[in-house]
Amino acid sequence: MSSEEGLQSTWSYDYTKYHPMDEIYRWMEEVERGNPGLVSSAVYGQTYEGRNITLLKLGLKNSEGREKKVIWVDCGIHAREWIAPAFCQWFVKEIVNSYKTNKKLEQMLQNLDIYVTPVINVDGYIFTWTNDSTRLWRKSRSLPPQGSDCYGVDLNRNFNANWGTVGVSFDSCANTYCGKSPASEPEAKAVMDFVGGMAKQILCFLTIHSAGQLILLPYGHPEISAPNYNELVSVGKAAAAEMKKVHGMNYTVGTSPQILYPNSGSSRDWARLIGIPFSYTFELRDKGEFSHLLPEEQIQPACEEAYAGALSIIAHVHDKTFTDGTLPNAAVTTVMGFNTVSGVAMTMWCTLMTVLLTAGISV
To answer: What's the CA gap between 228 and 218, in Å, rounded?
Structure first.
């Protein structure tokens, strides 16, 4: 039986359609059942409303028994960005269907475990399927704070990365409401706990969004620069070039302040701050015509080009690690022109920045 038959023999799944959450859960079960030597699953958290946050782990055993490194891919942190979960499913499908005939991919899967979360914001995603009036819901579905009747938090402003400093709102009715404190939301905390617990193993953190056709790298705060900024740019531009080859679509590469807007509390920035050397946000199609309402006929081309970009980055970090054994400096980050140590010192700096800016003190 081929890997494709293993994926689809018991259940037909249309990757050119958007799927509600119950179908995605069932798809995950079928993929795991059909590919026991490659795919396993894990529940690593629960949403505010008590639903499982589940990932698929893709990896092969290596004969040497050496420690494997990790690639993280997540989708669906913003509920309305339906193309993102569609991509995570496409990504898994492509790996499952091709690893036995693609020697490079097989080698990477022997050295790497790829963790894929199709939907982080499960509650919000389910809510967007309610009716047309809820389709563009962005945030989670946690209860309003006292004195408000506005639900939810922007989960991509809730991570402990310069939290609350720029590009956020403290108004619970705003789409960029960052929550009461860093990791106040169970979905963000689940990612921070799980990823943080194996940060030293993780080579690359990819978080998938829409729209705008961008590849964003750290940091969202305009006064902070990643120590391996130049390499992040060059690797991102190589990915964008591979993406353009597929359907001719242009993807712009840069930090969020450079090509979009400043922001803080993102999962991408948090991943880089804890020492994961390569961290990117993909903003998939399109550039404004349909935005978050991307029609289903564009799912396949959007996913094909995004897969090419993701594979380009994964191949780079794999070859860098398993060919010459070098990684960029994961400890030093440039902040306002000075070098500082990430991790504990960086967290202290972020906390200080938050306090000063919240108090209205100019820094």
So the answer is: 10
Residue with the two structure tokens 């030597």: 37
* DSSP conformation class of 132: G
Residues 6+ apart with CB under 8 A from 312: 235, 238, 239, 242
81 is annotated as an active-site residue: no
Query: pLDDT tens across 137-178, in order?
Result: 999 999 999 999 999 999 999 999 999 999 999 999 999 999
CA 283 to chain CA centroid, Å, is: 10
* Degrees to nearest 5, angle at CA 196 with 225 and 86: 85
Q: Which residues of 196-208 are buried (b: 16+ CB within 10 A; e: fewer)?
A: beebeebbbbbbb
Q: What is the pTM of this model?
A: 0.88
What's the length of the chain?
Answer: 363
Query: pLDDT of 104-113, one tens digit each?
Result: 999 999 999 9
Question: What separation in angstroms does the CA of 251 have from each of 29, 184, 236, 360?
Answer: 33, 33, 10, 37
∠6-9-15 over CA atoms, to 5°? 85
| 172: amino acid identity, one letter | S
Q: Give the residue from 139, 134, 145, 135 showing the smallest Cα distance to 123.
A: 139
Query: Of the residues 283, 289, 296, 305, which is catalytic?
Result: 283
What are residue 122's phi and psi, to 5 degrees? Answer: -65, -45
